[in-house]
Amino acid sequence: MAGKYFDEWQIGDRIEHEIRRTVTETDNLLFSTMTHNPQPLHLDIEVAKASEFGQILVNGTFTFALMVGLSVGDTTLGTLVANLGYDKLVMPKPVFIGDTMRATSEVTELKESKSRPNAGIVTFTHELINQRDEVVCRCLRSALIKKKDA
Hints:
CATH architecture: Roll
CATH superfamily: Hotdog Thioesterase
Largest sheet: 6 strands, antiparallel
Number of strands: 6
Number of helices: 4
Distance between the termini: 21 Å
Mean pLDDT: 96
Low-confidence stretches: none
Strand content: 25-35%
Structural class: alpha+beta
Helix content: 10-25%
Protein name: MaoC family dehydratase
InterPro entries: HotDog_dom_sf (IPR029069), MaoC-like_dom (IPR002539), MCH/BMMD (IPR052342)
């Protein structure tokens, strides 16, 4: 399903995104390496085993990026002008290698754009949920989205 236009959204619209993703060791290793993040909790099994978690923690910025990525097909694919910001990002539970993630999105605010009459601002609350039904990441995302008839 392609993304929706600004005029097609209503406050309270909620999507359970169909695409799921199991996080692999390669995902975590490549993302940490690509972003120059040397945190031993992400990369060193011995350090991670000695931590309170007892295993490798998945890089939190990968977790965040995965949450947003899983939402794009249903929210903004083909209708996005620009992402304007991400607010109130929290990670209430850790993500481990082998966890299977799913995402949800809810429209929490709609606002006409003052500078672009052909677009409006949609604020989504995105959540990433693991196979144990625990929310592992949540944020507000403000997106400038095209109007259908503009």
